[in-house]
């Protein structure tokens, strides 16, 4: 794989592309405790500033852990296209009606009996501090065909179909 470090708008674009493509991440808290607490979370959106938004219950362990330590780690995987993203950042919890209204998804009703008016609804914003990505240029099918061709011919892969690097906002 070649290395391509991204900054500012390019980094935001890559973070948005990969996170929204994967949609689900492993959301990790209490990073100094082993084993690290992690759970799957569905991304609501990645905004134009690179912040990642999630809906959560204010009574969840995750929220309690964030109140003690705002540092979180997110791992996104889109195996279908060989795309991966790791984000270390700080989390902020919102309980105000305007943020809940803005970030609400009808799918979240499955977890909140009273919908967006449920008193347990909270919104988590993760502000990336450090990010690293792995992405194929051509997608899964072309990468797979190149791999198979190399196996058949006995050649080794030159890893030129992929790119990885830091994404710093």
UniProtKB/TrEMBL annotation:
InterPro entries: Split_barrel_FMN-bd, Stress-Dev_Protein, YdaG_split_barrel_FMN-bd. Residues 10-158 form the General stress protein FMN-binding split barrel domain. It comes from Chryseobacterium geocarposphaerae. It comes from the Bacteria. Pfam families: Pyrid_ox_like. This is General stress protein 26.
